[in-house]
Amino acid sequence: MTAKTQPTDEQREIAALWLAKRTGGVLSVDEELEFETWLNAHRLNRLAWDEMRVLWAHLEQPATHVAQFSPPRSGLARHVFSLRGGYALSGSLIAASLAVLVINPYFLENLQADIVSGAQIITSVTLPDGSHVQMAANSALALQFDEHQRHVRLLRGEAFFNVTPGSKPDFSIDINGDTVRVIGTRFNVDNIADKTTIVVEEGIVSVQGAQDGATEHLSHGEQIIVSGGKSGEITPVEPELALAWLSGRLVVDQAPVADVVATLTRHSREKFYVRGALRGKRISGTFSLQDIEGSIETIAAAVDAKALRQIPFVTIIY
């Protein structure tokens, strides 16, 4: 049997968390012993630790700058600042926290989720009411099911729902305050780049953005995009193309490069970022969800760009 040569995601996440603690200087004697025990328990633990130290070195300077000139906005940032109360030390803590978030930028979202899909193209789940969901890679759902509600929050990603018909109460999905309601139908919800696309394969779906005064109703072969809490126009769509991801393909027609790359990033441990005006360039084509690096190279070539891996796990398209 061939020995593993790379740390697992779990080992990297644990290493990043230890880095955050040690950088902030908040380890007790017992925690220091626990860290040393973990570090020496497996050679790949030490390799994961070394990777995090390299990553921290890249992040330390810009993170310190953020700590000095930007007030903390998130609950995590406020917690980091409250640990020691000093801006100079907080810069290092933020750098270490960024190391955690680069390896798993969805760490906090996952804490809220009931279901989180892995790297596989499809994760099939049966909900408490018997409805079925096929989740795309790196997607997260929070569930609230009882006699009074069948409610799903799409925290991240994409999912195809096959809702059990004739069941009460009505089935609803919340995406950042935007609401999708159904009784029994088959439809897809994709949240990416601060917008949500709903495609109906069968039945009728009602959609209301957080800022909408009225509800839009979609039926077979129709889609709508909700952005900034506002619903756009209902447009015709070919469901078999929109749902091609269920067969391992991403099919796009004049889609922004940034959106396409963001979708592909779901399916990879690597993180891909698009710089500058390239983000808004539009491309069409079919891209494999099983060969992400090949798809990224194809996109870069199509828009006359380059793909550069600057630090571990991060590729910049420019």
From TrEMBL:
InterPro entries according to UniProt: FecR (IPR006860), FecR_N (IPR032623), Ferrdict_sens_TM (IPR012373)
TM spans (from-to): 87-108
Organism superkingdom: Bacteria
Residues spanning the signal sequence: none
Domain FecR protein: 114-205
UniProt KW keywords: Membrane, Transmembrane, Transmembrane helix
Membrane is among the record's keywords: yes
Pfam families: DUF4880, FecR
Location of the FecR N-terminal domain: 15-53
Protein name: FecR family protein
